[in-house]
């Protein structure tokens, strides 16, 4: 690798630190603006930010690599003698006209912009002359120190590049191992039952997929996953086929097909490549995390559109989580349980705010934010142009008397050949440094900056914030949008007084949200009393939308369940925990559980009838966790009765769960019995089933042995 190429890589890595941070900050502002429910817009913004975070360092390295000849030519045109320091400890000199050479170059005693100011004003006072000359000397010294620091950094850039290459190699090796593991899983997987393959094909056609998607089952995975791009497959755990109801499994398959339709596997491959190249950058890691979260939200929206019920889909995700045996680990595969499951469930069951911006306004906001991300590219070119200034063709060399700091070259000093010094042309005054802005203000009045067009790109967020702060009935000015929202919600002065009497501030946001939800003073008083604290407006709104009433809370408390968290209560209500379900669990002896356990039981289908049937087969006094696991893998009364007839009399919950999860049923046992395999242990049955050994294979092998 040539030295110039290594330098270019090193400077690109250094520039990526501030460039990636800037892009991440701009993305954060954009995400706040578009809102949490605009998953597709947030996903597009995050992908654009990731591309920009890689493109800017590449542009920096490219500019440094191709700007080397121009920098060398400029270095030869500027004699280094004009920026030398002859004495580190000069004696004090009172006469500013007789300052030694350590202060400035022998050509001039002050920067050009200070000389121009003094010439324009006629003659400056002795004090001003001393201050201005001293500032010019300070700038030269600071520039020399910065040049030395940059030279030291450049001298060690090769170590930075070598460390980066080593890091990229390690990350690449780890990801290659993950991809190979994923391919082995797909190769070892078995075809799913033909009925489910037909259902998947029908669902694919309904969702507009033209490519054929294979459905495979595997005992090595515990969550469904979409693998591949050109020849995609959907991997299903064996426990999912037997443990989820058909309707819920179709919803999960719709989520995986959404990944395939959106080409998420290919996008994830490019995303992993960027993560590998910029493995050291925390901002890039955060941007990549946003992409993964919003990708799952986008697929959730597609699955809900295909199924038509967001609450049922949330129940399917919760039931799928109970089937997971191993904790989630990062994988290149697209999984239905990617991202934060609690956050996804809350997003699905929480209704959107009743007052939102129109579609054209949201589209304009997204377009403006995407354009703002593109501004970083010319900004980088501008900043790099200050550090890597090259002379244009036709420009004459100009003696640099006291240049600003950015104009100093980063390359190590090279002894130049003696060149004839041409009479200096009057240089254009450069922008004064920030440290002497007050003095530079006298040279030319600063032009008024043009107003930034923020009102359009930040309109929706600013409007929401304004709604949260604007009080109704307090003499504050109301905007047109606020007046329309209040009118549509049917707000009256009596309603404003009513909300004030409840103890809540009558802002536009609170009035509209609580009125649309149908929240009354009696409801607020009862809910605050039962929770023992004053609930926030958002909490009250969510509870009311889900149908949580004081009577519902009382039925849970009377059954012995702890009610202390509004979020947990909302989740329980969303998955269908009602009074009859709670009463039946109490009669079956299950009380004192948390709301989370109650919601999980309901989500996987554990009902009072299921508990009674399991008691009939000898499975009594099971813990709530055991009931969830048995029901999740498909241990139902029908399967248990058939296993009893086949000779399996065990009452151990873990053993039954293991047999059902691997697909051992009465038919399989009967086939093995007919093939001559009797009195097999649980381990032997599981190994035969997961290894694909059936009665037909056994008979073939025995027939081969007999020949």
Q: What's the β-strand tally?
A: 5
Strand sequence of the main sheet, in spatial order? 1-2-4-3-5
Q: So how many helices? A: 34
Helix content: 55-70%
The dominant shape is: flat
Strand coverage percent = under 5%
Indicate the radius of gyration in whole angstroms: 36 Å
Terminal-residue CA separation: 66 Å
Q: Please summarize the sheet with the most strands.
A: 5 strands, mixed
Q: Uncertain spans, ≥5 residues at pLDDT below 50?
A: 78-114, 326-330, 353-370, 372-459
- This entry's quaternary arrangement is single chain
Overall pLDDT metric: 75
- Summing up helix and strand content along with how strands pair, one would put the structural category as mainly alpha
Organism: Myxococcus xanthus
Biased composition (Low complexity): 434-458
Transmembrane segments: 12-35, 41-62, 131-150, 156-177
Region (Disordered): 387-470
Write the layout of secondary structure elements.
Blueprint (H helix, E strand, L loop, with lengths): L2 H32 L4 H28 L1 H10 L34 H10 L4 H30 L1 H32 L1 E2 L2 H13 L7 E5 L6 E3 L5 E5 H6 L2 H16 L2 H14 L4 H26 L2 H13 L11 E2 L5 H9 L9 H16 L1 H12 L49 H4 L13 H4 L1 H11 L10 H10 L3 H10 L5 H10 L3 H11 L5 H9 L4 H9 L7 H9 L4 H9 L7 H10 L3 H9 L7 H10 L3 H9 L7 H9 L4 H9 L7 H9 L4 H12 L1
Parallel strand pairs: 2-4
Antiparallel strand pairs: 1-2, 3-4, 3-5
Q: Can you walk me through this structure?
A:
Residues 412-433 have a biased composition (Pro residues). This protein is mainly alpha-helical and 707 residues long. Among the domains are: 80-155, no CATH class; 160-350, no CATH class; 629-707, no CATH class. The chain contains 34 helices and 5 strands. It has helices at residues 3-34, 39-66, 68-77, 112-121, 126-155, 157-188, 194-206, 238-243, 246-261, 264-277, 282-307, 310-322, 341-349, 359-374, 376-387, 437-440, 454-457, 459-469, 480-489, 493-502, 508-517, 521-531, 537-545, 550-558, 566-574, 579-587, 595-604, 608-616, 624-633, 637-645, 653-661, 666-674, 682-690, 695-706, and strands at residues 190-191, 214-218, 225-227, 233-237, 334-335. A hairpin with a 5-residue loop joins strand 3 (225-227) and strand 4. The longest helix is centred in the N-terminal third of the chain and has 32 residues, at 3-34. The relative contact order is 0.09.
């Amino acid at each position: 690798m040539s030295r110039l190429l290594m330098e270019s890589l090193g400077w690109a890595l250094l520039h990526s630190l501030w460039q990636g941070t800037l892009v991440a900050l701009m993305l954060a502002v954009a995400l706040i603006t578009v809102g949490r429910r605009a998953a597709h817009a947030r996903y597009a913004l995050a992908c654009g930010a990731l591309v920009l975070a890689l493109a800017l360092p590449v542009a920096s390295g490219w500019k440094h690599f191709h700007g080397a000849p121009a920098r060398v030519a400029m270095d030869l045109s500027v004699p280094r003698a004009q920026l030398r320091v002859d004495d580190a400890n000069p004696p004090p000199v009172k006469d500013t006209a007789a300052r030694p050479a350590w202060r400035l170059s022998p050509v001039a005693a002050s920067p050009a912009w200070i000389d121009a100011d003094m010439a324009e004003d006629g003659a400056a006072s002795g004090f001003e002359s001393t201050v201005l000359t001293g500032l010019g000397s300070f700038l030269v010294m600071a520039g020399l120190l910065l040049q030395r620091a940059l030279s030291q950094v450049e001298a060690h850039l090769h170590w930075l590049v070598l460390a980066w290459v080593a890091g990229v190699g390690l990350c690449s090796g780890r990801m290659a191992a993950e991809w190979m593991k994923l391919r082995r899983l797909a190769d070892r997987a078995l075809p799913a039952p033909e009925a489910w393959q037909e259902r998947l094909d029908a669902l694919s056609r309904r969702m507009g997929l033209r490519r054929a998607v294979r459905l495979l089952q595997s005992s090595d995975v515990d969550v469904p996953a979409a693998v591949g791009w050109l020849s995609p497959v959907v991997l299903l755990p064996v426990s999912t086929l037997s443990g989820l109801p058909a309707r819920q499994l179709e919803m999960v398959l719709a989520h995986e097909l959404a990944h395939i339709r959106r080409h998420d596997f290919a996008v994830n491959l490019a995303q992993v490549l960027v993560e590998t190249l910029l493995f050291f950058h925390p901002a890039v890691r955060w941007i990549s995390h946003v992409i993964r979260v919003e990708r799952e939200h986008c697929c959730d929206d597609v699955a809900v559109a295909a199924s038509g019920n967001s609450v049922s889909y949330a129940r399917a995700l919760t039931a799928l989580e109970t089937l997971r045996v191993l904790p989630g680990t990062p994988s290149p595969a697209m999984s239905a349980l990617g991202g934060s499951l609690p956050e996804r469930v809350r997003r699905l069951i929480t209704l959107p705010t009743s007052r939102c911006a129109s579609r054209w306004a949201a589209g304009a906001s997204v377009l403006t934010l995407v354009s703002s991300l593109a501004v970083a590219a010319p900004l980088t070119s501008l900043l790099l142009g200050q550090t890597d200034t090259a002379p244009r063709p036709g420009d004459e060399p100009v003696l640099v008397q006291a240049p600003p700091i950015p104009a100093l070259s980063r390359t190590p000093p090279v002894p130049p050949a003696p060149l004839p010094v041409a009479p200096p042309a009057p240089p254009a005054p450069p922008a004064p440094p920030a440290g002497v802005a007050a003095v530079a203000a006298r040279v030319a009045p600063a032009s008024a900056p043009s107003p930034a067009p923020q009102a359009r790109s930040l309109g929706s967020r600013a409007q929401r914030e304004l709604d949260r702060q604007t009080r109704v009935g307090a003499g504050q000015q109301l905007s047109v949008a606020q007046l329309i929202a209040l009118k549509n919600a049917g707000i009256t002065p009596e309603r404003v007084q009513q909300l004030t009497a409840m103890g809540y501030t009558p802002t536009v946001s609170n009035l509209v949200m609580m009125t649309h939800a149908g929240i009354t003073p009696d409801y607020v008083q009862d809910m605050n009393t039962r929770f023992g604290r004053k609930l926030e407006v958002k909490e009250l709104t969510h509870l009311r939308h889900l149908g949580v009433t004081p009577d519902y809370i009382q039925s849970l408390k009377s059954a012995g369940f702890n009610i202390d968290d509004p979020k947990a209560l909302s989740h329980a209500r969303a998955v269908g925990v009602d009074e009859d379900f709670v009463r039946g669990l109490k009669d079956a002896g299950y009380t004192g559980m948390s709301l989370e356990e109650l919601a999980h039981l309901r989500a996987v289908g554990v009902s009072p009838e299921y508990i009674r049937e399991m008691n009939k087969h000898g499975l009594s006094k099971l813990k709530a966790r055991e009931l969830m696991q048995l029901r999740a893998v498909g241990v139902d009364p029908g399967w248990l009765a058939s296993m009893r007839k086949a000779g399996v009399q065990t009452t151990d919950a873990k053993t039954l769960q293991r047999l059902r999860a691997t697909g051992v049923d009465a038919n399989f046992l009967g086939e093995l019995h007919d093939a001559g395999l009797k009195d097999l242990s649980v381990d032997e049955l599981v190994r035969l089933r997961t290894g694909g050994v059936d009665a037909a294979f056994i008979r073939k092998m025995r027939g081969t042995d007999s020949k």
